[in-house]
Write a structure and sequence with these properties.
Distance between the termini: 59 Å
Helix content: 40-55%
Number of strands: 8
Shape: globular
Oligomer: single chain
Number of domains: 2
Number of helices: 12
Radius of gyration: 21 Å
CATH superfamily of the largest domain: Spore Coat Polysaccharide Biosynthesis Protein SpsA, Chain A
CATH topology of the largest domain: Spore Coat Polysaccharide Biosynthesis Protein SpsA, Chain A
CATH architecture of the largest domain: Alpha-Beta Complex
Strand content: 15-25%
Structural class: alpha/beta
Length: about 350
């Protein structure tokens, strides 16, 4: 990442945008109406085919704090990286284009990060529906534990995993840009589940991390979003890439015992997610991705994970998914005809 001068006290809000005209005004307005005024807003239009490009330009003409990047459609990670490349803020924040920030969010995050000299501050959020109302599962991004100290990223990762409070979602992070420059950390482009890799590598390497126990973010659950789209082979490919990079980090670093245990559990859980994603594919897609699946097992074996329970996992998941899909089929039949 190019080392450009950052401005003390400035917070860069980066919004990658793709075909979300219905929600974009509300998202941008929530950023511009922040009680903390020393911000720059970087709108990255990722080749939208709706009215998003025009909406971005309209905001740029009205407010000098707004910068716009128009690019061909290359994906979320590239959009974030291009916004990050021109960001001049001391801290950077990535806001999804269909979501909303609380008015005091940046004020709370900057003050907390600045007072405690944090590289990254984690915080909480609610889930809302398409109409902006709290969803039934609205506390999905609320951490239950208390993390009041300043931690190394590794220590905070251990604590979060121990309490089942680990959330990989990047919009729940406010990050000092110099930290990303020092780590040469950007988003892996061309895959899904990029947050899983970015957040893991950030916490494994940053020196000062903390948690602000306030819900300052409203994540919208809507049809057609990454959160709700039915998984396909892109999900499996994304899991594969992320797992490979996490294993690469693990195998090349000597971790303290408590961190090692937490990372092993994280890898094991992520491996199960990857394999579940593979089992959701059609028989044709499974055959097309069989080499990748075998590579997945090879990676785990090389790290000492799959040598003992490889056959067990194969049988376990195949059996569970046969039962699962049978139950789903019966349920759909009942709803349709009874």
């Amino acid at each position: 990442m190019e080392n450009i001068d950052t401005i003390k006290g400035l917070v860069s809000i980066i919004i990658p945008i793709y075909n979300v005209e219905m929600f974009l005004h509300e998202c941008i307005d929530s950023a511009l109406k922040q009680t903390y005024k020393d911000i720059e807003l970087i709108l990255v239009d990722d080749g939208s085919s709706d009215n998003c490009p025009q909406i971005c330009d309209e905001y740029s003409a009205l407010d000098s704090r707004v910068k716009v990047i128009h690019q061909k459609n290359v994906g979320l990670s590239c959009a974030r990286n291009n916004g990050l490349a021109i960001a001049k803020g001391e801290y950077v924040y990535f806001l999804d284009s269909d979501d909303i920030l609380a008015e005091n969010a940046i004020m709370e995050l900057y003050n907390n990060a600045n007072e405690r000299k944090l590289d990254v501050v984690l915080f909480d959020g609610y889930v809302i529906d398409e109409d902006g109302k709290l969803a039934k599962t609205n506390r999905l991004y609320i951490r239950k534990g208390r993390y009041e100290d300043v931690y190394t990223g590794k220590k905070l990762f251990v604590e979060l995993k121990r309490n089942f409070d680990y959330k990989s979602s990047v919009p729940l992070l406010c990050i000092r840009k110099q930290c990303l420059i020092n780590l040469n950390l950007t988003f892996c482009e061309g895959i899904l589940h990029e947050d899983e890799l970015f957040t893991f590598l950030l916490l494994m390497q940053c020196k000062r991390a903390g948690h602000l126990p306030k819900p300052l973010y409203y994540r919208r659950k809507r049809a057609g979003s990454i959160m709700t789209t039915i998984p396909d082979k892109r999900n499996f490919t994304g899991y594969m890439c992320v797992l490979e990079e996490i294993l690469k980090y693990y195998n090349s670093n000597d971790l303290e015992t408590n961190v090692d245990i937490a990372v092993k559990k994280h890898i094991a859980a992520f491996f199960e997610s990857a394999y579940r994603s593979y089992m959701r594919l059609s028989e044709r897609e499974q055959e097309e991705n069989k080499a990748q699946k075998n590579h997945l097992f090879s990676l785990m074996s090389e790290s000492g994970y799959a040598s003992v329970w490889r056959i067990f996992l194969k049988v376990r998941f195949k059996l569970l998914y046969k039962i699962y899909f049978k139950v789903v089929s019966l349920k759909q039949y009942a709803l349709r005809y009874w």
